[in-house]
Design goal:
Distance between the termini: 21 Å
Number of strands: 5
Low-confidence stretches: none
Helix content: 25-40%
CATH class: Alpha Beta
Strand content: 15-25%
Strand order of the largest sheet: 1-2-5-3-4
Number of domains: 1
CATH architecture: 2-Layer Sandwich
């Protein structure tokens, strides 16, 4: 096992299968796009054990509480790590998480989007350590997100040369 695999096991994190589209949806894009030493991760949301989108669904905070949205953000990171594992084969190839783009399905006027994404950022630090897991980030409120997920996260990563 690699050091990252050891950290995932120590944290009790099981990686989900590939994302499965809900009825009426198609995924005509790559979840992970590698170009040289750069990796672009498409927007990921929380996944159920079968790969389907995982609730709760709806806007933060009127339908989905701050705590639930934070859990969804952490689960989105787990989904991202699973996609990276499938694409890269070895998560220790990751040299740095450069930028994390967080999107929150927010009620108008909801100003705590940063608080929603903080546990996701912390999980990246817990899994990858401060040298690799440290990243720049945005946490934006959106009028709507696909399948009414409360959080979707995308990222840019650098691989070791």
């Amino acid at each position: 096992m690699s050091p990252i695999d050891d950290r995932l096991a120590a944290l009790g994190i099981a990686l989900p299968p590939p994302p499965q589209p809900p009825p009426g949806f198609a995924f005509p894009f790559s979840w992970v796009r590698v170009r040289g030493s750069r990796v672009f991760l498409s927007g990921h949301g929380a996944q159920a054990i079968d790969g389907s989108p995982q609730g709760p669904f709806g806007k933060v905070p009127s339908t989905v509480s701050l705590d639930q949205a934070q859990a969804s953000a952490r689960a989105a990171v787990v989904s991202m790590v699973a996609s990276l594992q499938r694409e890269l084969g070895d998560l220790d190839r990751i040299a740095a998480w450069l930028m994390v783009f967080g999107h929150v399905n927010a009620d108008p006027g909801f100003e705590q989007t940063t608080l929603v994404l903080n546990p996701a950022s912390q999980l990246l630090l817990d899994i990858f350590g401060p040298e690799v897991g440290s990243h720049a980030r945005t946490a934006l409120g959106q009028a709507a997100l696909p399948v009414d997920l409360p959080v979707i996260i995308a990222a840019e990563i650098e691989l070791h040369h």
